[in-house]
Design goal:
single chain; alpha/beta; 2 domains; globular
């Protein structure tokens, strides 16, 4: 590996040269089934031809101007996003962390407009919202915080999927101005809340005049079978953040707002040099077009059900699997013990997976995965998990 790189990742011993659909090839021309899609980014697969054509055409026309000028492609993309989400206005950034930073700033500005001296945002345990100072503070993982104290003030943490904790917080803190929550926790282990959780959050926010902010950076853009995971529960947040799959590999993030949140930002409140540039907006616009025309949300639902059903069948008699959780193609296989070693073992078998929260195999395959590719994925996983069970049960000397 290149010693000039900062040691911010424990990288696996592989480097890829090209891809197609759900497949990646390394420098030795070995093929891998990508069941993590760049951590939920390449949802339409690698080397998508329609996206490649847009990339080439737009790169020849115009890459960047500035947000001090009108950008027609940005306006087009904003209209597309508002149509599919029911939101009213959009701020474009370059990443999910930046989108969440925008949402946090909006919540604080809203709180000050209400006369609150120290606007406070409720966040949850086991969450993940980014690596900037504000978003890592909002993240509910002490490992992410370690070494970066003092953290940013203005956040109050409660357990995930616990309405009573939020009601208690509301009674004890008059400065709460918003709730920031993942509809489904991704990095925290594919944690899917009770069916009435988001509905109750919406009610609480309405009762107290708080903003409901949903971080859909991983769960959005058809990943769970709808444009937004919150749409499963028929609620509309005040603010939604998107990134990852929005650009299918081209960096772009978006902070969407509606209702009382739609006009919080005014000129001078926020900005971005690169956010919403013609290049990234042209690509994201094509991503939405493809997802819409090819019914990608429905395919994600069907594929997620298929993978989960097959894995549940073949792993039904294993003792090492605690639970399989999924919503669309956001899948978590929770084992009874830490299983980080499975990432390397899967790599040897030509499969790319991720283990999060120590013992949850996270699957985020491209939403275009075929029936044959699903069979390959589940067959490899079955062998890996059963081998892991066998070695786990072997006596140690």
């Amino acid at each position: 590996m290149n010693n000039a790189l900062m040691a911010t990742y424990n990288r696996l011993p592989v480097s890829f040269t090209h891809g197609e659909g759900v497949w990646l090839w390394d420098q030795n021309n070995k093929r891998y089934l990508d069941a993590i899609s760049g951590i939920g980014v390449c949802s339409l697969g690698h080397a998508n031809e329609a996206i490649a054509e847009v990339i080439c055409a737009q790169s020849r026309a115009l890459l960047h101007t500035s947000n001090i000028y009108g950008i027609s492609l940005q306006e087009k993309l904003a209209q597309q996003l508002c149509k599919i989400t029911g939101m009213e206005s959009v701020f474009f950034s370059n990443s999910g962390a930046e989108a969440n930073e925008a949402a946090i700033k909006m919540a604080r500005l809203y709180g000050h407009q209400q006369g609150k001296q120290t606007p406070t945002i409720l966040v949850t345990e086991n969450s993940f919202h980014g690596r900037t100072m504000a978003t890592l503070t909002a993240t509910g993982n002490p490992k992410v915080h370690a070494g970066f104290e003092p953290l940013v003030q203005g956040f109050l943490r409660v357990p995930y999927n616990n309405i009573e904790a939020i009601q208690t917080a509301a009674k004890n803190n008059n400065d709460i101005t918003a709730i920031l929550v993942e509809p489904i926790q991704g990095e925290g282990g594919i944690n899917i809340p009770d069916d009435d959780y988001l509905t109750n959050l919406r009610k609480i926010c309405d009762e107290h005049d708080w903003l409901l902010i949903t971080d859909e950076i991983q769960s959005g853009m058809c990943r769970t079978g709808k444009w937004l995971a919150s749409q499963h529960y028929n609620i509309k947040p005040d603010i939604v953040t998107l990134a990852k799959a929005l650009g299918n590999g081209i960096p772009i993030g978006a902070c969407l707002a509606q209702g009382k949140a739609s006009n919080i930002f005014q000129p001078g409140n926020h900005g971005s040099t690169f956010g919403g540039n013609p290049f990234s907006c042209a690509v994201a616009s094509e991503v939405i077009k493809i997802m819409d025309e090819k019914n990608i949300a429905e395919k994600a639902t069907a594929a997620g059900n298929s993978i989960t059903r097959k894995l549940s069948d073949v792993l039904a008699n294993t003792t090492v699997v605690n639970e399989i959780r999924h919503k669309g193609l956001m899948i978590g296989i929770e084992l009874h013990k830490p299983c980080a070693e499975l990432v390397s073992k899967a790599l040897e078998q030509g499969l790319l997976i991720n283990v999060t929260h120590d013992k949850i195999i996270r699957l985020l395959p491209p939403l275009t995965i075929s029936a044959d590719e699903i069979d390959k994925l589940t067959n490899i996983l079955e062998r890996l998990i059963k081998d892991f069970e066998q070695t786990s049960n072997e006596p140690t000397n």
